[in-house]
Amino acid sequence: VSRRGLEPEDYAHNTALHLAALQGNAGTIAALLEAGAPLEARAAWGGTPLCEASLQGHVSAVQVLLDGGAAVDVVTEVGATPLVIAERRGHRAVADLLRGRP
Question: Which residues, other chains included, contact 2 with Cβ-Cβ below 8 Å and sequence gap of 6+?
Answer without folding.
Answer: none
